[in-house]
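Entry 0007
Protein: Phosphoglucosamine mutase
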Amino acid sequence: MTLIKSISGIRGTIGGRAGDTLNPLDIVKFVSAYATFIARKHPGKKLKIVVGRDARISGPMVKNVVCGTLMGIGADVVNIGLATTPTTELAVRMSGADGGIIITASHNPRHWNALKLLNEEGEFLTAADGAEVLDIADREDFEYADVDGMGSYVDDDSFDERHIEEVMNLELLDLEAVKNRKFRVVVDAINSVGGVILPKLLDRLGVEYKFLNGDATGDFSHNPEPIAQNLTGIMDEVSKGGYDLGIVVDPDVDRLAFIQEDGQMYGEEYTLVTVADYILEHVKGNTVSNLSSTRALRDVTEKHGGKYYASAVGEVNVTTKMKEVGAVIGGEGNGGVIYPDSHYGRDALVGIALFLSSLAQKGMKASELRKTFPEYFIAKNRIDLTADTDVDAILVRVKELYGQEKDVQVTDIDGVKLDFPDAWVHLRKSNTEPIIRVYSEANTMEAADALGKKLMQVVYDMQ
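Output (structure tokens):
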């Protein structure tokens, strides 16, 4: 039984008692709070809210509750149906809506669902705005419209095509080179909305494709997180030969991973690195990723004469920093590409178009392109703590311990990150569990894991 409320939305497992899991009562309360928040931002205005969802099995139930609640508050609803997260983000902006709700639990398993909240720009709410929504929900500080003030409802399935058109109009998409390369790819869409929109995109790009798990049934064929241990099916298929690339997306298509032509993982961290390298070859500028992402992006940025900046973990933190420093490309190491020339949101369609453009222009195989970038490895560990452990105090002590060392750069905007000359380690407390996440990176996996475990022992010795 799991229900998690945070400033970025509400998520949980389906079924069980209200208040313990994501149930209709919880959905009504949270959507009511969000709509009230949006209404207070636009006093006196008849609200328009976009709703889109991934294909997970609970989607129709959650969508009906969400849309009915919005109408009850008095908002007009534009339901765009099965849609990717970036499509829904763009639909808010394209339709002139006042906000949007994405019904997706992203890479969480099939029995999970969630609500992600957007502002009028089609971007995720800030931490302050998310906290205000939670406060309104906790106080149940909302009321519903009378019969004459209820909202309307309309279905609009035009936004997939409009999203694809947006990608096709990107100045740095080299459509001629992509078509001339005559790529042949395999796509794993995990039986969600990638199976709906990606065939249309690949057709426009002139790419020949085979889909694995391309039916948008929501019955996910494997664990949805696009990491190596979950992708043996597509890796085996690509290994048979005859393919230029494997393409993997998560259920809501904001994360993107590639399989090399030899069947090996390209490396999810290197999706953003590769796209950034391509962008920076054509446009000078700065880049941003979060503190837990690979140092390779910094190296590539500096090679092209730009400056790299790190943000706290979380997409809204990345986009805020990108706007602050005028970044031309940014994202997260989990395969999230954020390209401002399209919009401020992770978008696998944009990532696919630009990655293929890079491959086509360079005339390389995927494995050859991968070898042009600095080689780093990230180890991921965790420290389990008791519920009454003062995690903040531990992190302060770690900062004090290493802050005196001249070869260590300490960053504390999100936990504590220690940058050594040839490696880094990031300690960050979980918002939902009594644990500290420990991410570390070095030139070999063994060195990365050893660094992480060294810091873990430092923390254990403090308790």
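Curator remark: Residues 290 and 311 are 5 Å apart (CA to CA). The chain is about 40% helix and 25% strand.
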